[in-house]
């Protein structure tokens, strides 16, 4: 059958030790679905589940949000340096915590069982003859990728640049690096390593490289103080202290940054100024920075960044973010008031971060280099270093012309927003939802709802969206990504889907930074319809009812518009707590945007009927769930969860997307009683992200574990060149809500690392019993590329599977559990 949906191909082998947990419960809360259970409630029973949807008197369904985590990790040396990318791993091998991966994939030969997964069910209708009606999520026009193409043209409407380049190498440049070390330094010496790269650069007299340090409980070198903030200069290969005892000041406080900007500009006057933010980034919702010495201070919001740059009083040639997730339209509009260019990443950055040696050396050789060339060098150095040192980890970096973007994008964004709002109000919410759910999402596991705006616009397929996409691509002058990163054009934007609790705060942010209110209206209308759909369908956040066969309350049909109107009216007069994360304090968008009667009519005509999730037999005799074409059209994603009965309860093995759908639209159960393993050891595995096409795809998942005693996730990648998959690295978890920013990804595992895999466990008395160690401790004995991934038999115990269907309102439904 041609044009199968994207899916993980199961490489099924024999042998292995099966599933076994060991020791006592770890007391850490769930590792598989933390959104369902708070860390403070480690034993939620079936009788008192936390809720993520309203309760309908006609029908109740079981819902669980598919969760994955992000994290960080890194490097460990302060000595040496180098002049090529290999310094990331070889400068001081006796202190290094990384190693180079030169091959990917396992190359294991065994029986192959091919499954197919859906990132959206629109792919089903486009690829299966049973549903040949096409899909509204398909792009209305084809758009070539803008990766690796330098665009030097400037729109005629762009404002003049604020920085004037003198030419002939006469320019003096002051580069300010705002380096909040945080846990990246105290745990992994990432800041130390980047300073080492800066010291290895050949800097001339016309380059002033000034570093402000702080934010780390412990600096992994014998130079920088952990007790006070300091200012250093990198000169002649050395790190010279300029200001000591500045004070123990929070680095996420805008006044700390603005004071540094004023000091650096006052003491090192130049005609070109550059500013680099170094630390974590959380995108438009999370902002910049995590100061581990002042965790309660939170991050620096976009409005805080705006305040800091305004009070600093300096106009910058470029502002860069050596952080995760800050290449957003919102951030670009803020920075455009103070700089000509923005250099930032849409996705989480690999732990090695920017590679500083080469681009600084080139700039020193010609301080009159145009800013686009500087940005291109930064981007090329970064992406090349990541490709060599951490292949498999997603990488993005782009440079945006803010003088152009600020004058061209706001109007096109407003027109696009107005048109999208009209679609939502005009009973085309499903089309918008499909485009949104199909768009490239960043830090998907953290549910910050940040998507590539060009990709979203392309999928919307309207005249207004095409104009917006073209305008954005014109302002994005250079963009590069890793080979496994598709549909990332260089600028993202917040658009709610997985969490609506941030809508009000983002609307407030838009007002604070002076962003046009048409986009705010658009996301308020979309979020209102999404919440209304969730209220009408109901659900719980616990998988336990499905596991224990308690799905009788899922209902026997669909509600009428009149009944839904009553439900919504009651909901709007309540405290909103029936929807997970919502309170009376973060739901003003509902009162401003929700037309109850219109919403009720639309929902009544576009409901997913969970009562149809019943097991029957396909024509081949296999266990199957068969839905009508109309019901499939309400489904945007399908995955399945697997549990293993070990004689004392149920071990949760994770969530996978190696599903199979036959020509008749029957979802076939996975009856082979196998699960994903690493080096012959069964592990808990959770799919994170599915992107691409059948011929060029990348599927990313995570495996919860302890790495050398620290809570971590191994990152697993399956792509079109490595169908059997490979381990791409590890990222550490934040366990206690330390920050809303997202940590940089770790670099690779190294020989001698100790890994203990972790799983969730449910006892027969219907409670979450805790997280346990799974299998035996594993010691890394070679490069990650040698680690073998395959599906192996889980053992003699029963295997229980329940399938998760996500509808256009972001609500997730469980099928009844099937046992093998």
UniProtKB/TrEMBL annotation:
Coiled-coil annotated residue ranges, if any: none
InterPro entries attached to this UniProt entry: Peptidase_C11
Domain of life: Bacteria
Compositionally biased region (Polar residues): 36-53, 86-95
Keyword Transmembrane: yes
Annotated TM spans: 58-79
Keywords recorded for this protein, A-Z: Membrane, Transmembrane, Transmembrane helix
Region: Disordered, residue numbers: 1-53, 86-113
Comp. bias intervals (Low complexity): 96-113
Protein known as: Peptidase C11
Biological source species: Butyrivibrio proteoclasticus
């Amino acid at each position: 059958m041609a044009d199968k949906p994207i899916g993980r191909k199961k490489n099924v082998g024999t042998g292995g030790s099966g599933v076994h947990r060991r020791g006592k419960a770890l007391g850490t809360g769930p590792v598989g679905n933390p959104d369902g259970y708070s860390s403070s409630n480690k034993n939620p029973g079936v009788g008192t589940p936390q809720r993520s949807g309203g309760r309908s008197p006609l029908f109740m369904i079981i819902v669980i949000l598919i969760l994955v985590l992000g994290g960080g990790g890194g490097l460990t040396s302060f000595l040496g340096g180098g002049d090529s990318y290999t310094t990331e791993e070889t400068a001081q091998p006796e202190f290094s915590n990384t190693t180079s991966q030169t091959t990917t994939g396992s190359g294991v030969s065994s029986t192959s069982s091919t499954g197919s997964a859906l990132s959206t069910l629109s792919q089903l209708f486009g690829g299966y003859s049973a549903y040949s009606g096409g899909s509204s999520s398909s792009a209305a026009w084809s758009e070539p990728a803008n990766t690796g193409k330098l665009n030097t043209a400037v729109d005629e409407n762009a404002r003049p640049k604020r920085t004037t380049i003198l030419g002939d190498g006469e320019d003096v440049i002051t580069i300010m690096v705002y380096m909040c070390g945080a846990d990246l330094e105290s745990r992994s010496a990432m800041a130390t390593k980047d300073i080492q790269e800066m010291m290895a650069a050949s800097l001339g007299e016309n380059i002033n490289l000034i570093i402000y340090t702080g934010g780390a409980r412990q600096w992994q070198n014998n130079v920088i103080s952990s007790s006070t903030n300091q200012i250093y200069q990198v000169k002649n290969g050395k790190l010279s202290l300029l200001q000591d005892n500045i004070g123990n000041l929070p680095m996420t406080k805008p006044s700390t940054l603005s004071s540094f900007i004023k000091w650096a500009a006052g003491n090192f006057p130049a005609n070109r100024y550059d500013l680099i933010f170094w630390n974590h980034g959380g995108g438009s919702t999370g902002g910049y920075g995590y100061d581990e010495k002042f965790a309660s201070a939170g991050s620096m919001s976009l409005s805080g960044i705006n305040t800091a740059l305004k009070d600093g009083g300096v106009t910058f040639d470029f502002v860069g973010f050596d952080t995760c997730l800050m290449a957003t339209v919102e951030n670009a509009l803020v920075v455009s008031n103070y700089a000509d260019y923005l250099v930032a990443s849409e996705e989480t950055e690999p732990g090695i971060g920017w590679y500083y040696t080469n681009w600084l050396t080139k700039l020193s050789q010609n301080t009159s280099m145009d800013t686009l060339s500087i940005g291109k060098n930064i981007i090329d150095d970064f992406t090349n270093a990541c490709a060599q040192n951490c292949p498999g980890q997603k990488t993005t970096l782009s440079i945006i012309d803010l003088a152009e973007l600020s004058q061209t994008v706001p109007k096109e964004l407003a027109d696009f927003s107005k048109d999208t709002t009209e679609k939502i109000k005009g009973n085309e919410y499903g089309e918008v939802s499909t485009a949104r759910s199909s768009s490239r999402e960043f830090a998907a596991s953290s549910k910050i709802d940040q998507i590539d705006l060009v990709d979203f616009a392309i999928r919307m397929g309207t005249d207004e969206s095409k104009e917006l996409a073209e305008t954005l691509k014109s302002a994005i002058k250079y963009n590069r990504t890793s080979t496994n990163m598709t549909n990332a054009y260089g600028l993202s934007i917040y658009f709610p889907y997985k969490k609506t609790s941030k809508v009000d705060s983002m609307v407030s942010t838009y007002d604070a930074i002076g962003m046009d209110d048409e986009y705010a209206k658009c996301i308020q209308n979309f979020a209102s319809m999404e919440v209304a759909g969730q209220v009408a369908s109901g659900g719980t956040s616990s998988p336990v009812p499905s596991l224990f066969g308690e799905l009788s309350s899922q209902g026997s049909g669909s509600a009428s518009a009149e009944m839904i109107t009553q439900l919504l009216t009651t909901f709007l007069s309540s405290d909103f707590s029936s929807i997970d994360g919502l309170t009376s304090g973060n739901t003003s968008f509902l009162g401003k945007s929700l037309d109850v009667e219109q919403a009720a009519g639309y929902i009544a005509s576009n409901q997913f009927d969970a009562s149809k999730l019943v097991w029957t037999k396909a024509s081949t005799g296999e266990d199957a769930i068969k839905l009508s074409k109309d019901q499939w059209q309400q489904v945007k994603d399908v995955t399945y969860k697997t549990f293993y009965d070990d004689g004392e309860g149920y071990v949760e093995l994770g969530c996978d997307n190696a599903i199979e759908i036959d020509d008749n639209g029957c979802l076939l159960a996975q009856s082979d009683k196998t699960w994903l393993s690493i080096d012959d050891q069964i592990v808990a595995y959770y799919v994170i992200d599915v992107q691409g096409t059948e011929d060029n795809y990348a599927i990313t998942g995570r495996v919860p574990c302890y790495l050398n005693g620290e809570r971590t996730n191994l990152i697993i990648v399956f792509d079109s060149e490595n169908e059997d998959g490979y381990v791409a690295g590890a990222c550490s978890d934040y366990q206690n809500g330390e920050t809303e920013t997202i940590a940089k990804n770790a670099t690779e595992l190294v020989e001698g690392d100790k890994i203990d895999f972790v799983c969730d466990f449910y006892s027969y008395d219907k409670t979450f019993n805790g997280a346990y160690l799974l299998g035996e401790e594993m010691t890394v004995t070679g490069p990650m590329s040698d680690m073998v991934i395959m599906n192996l038999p889980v053992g003699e115990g029963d295997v229980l599977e329940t399938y998760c269907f996500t509808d256009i309102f972001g609500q997730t439904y469980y099928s009844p559990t099937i046992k093998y």
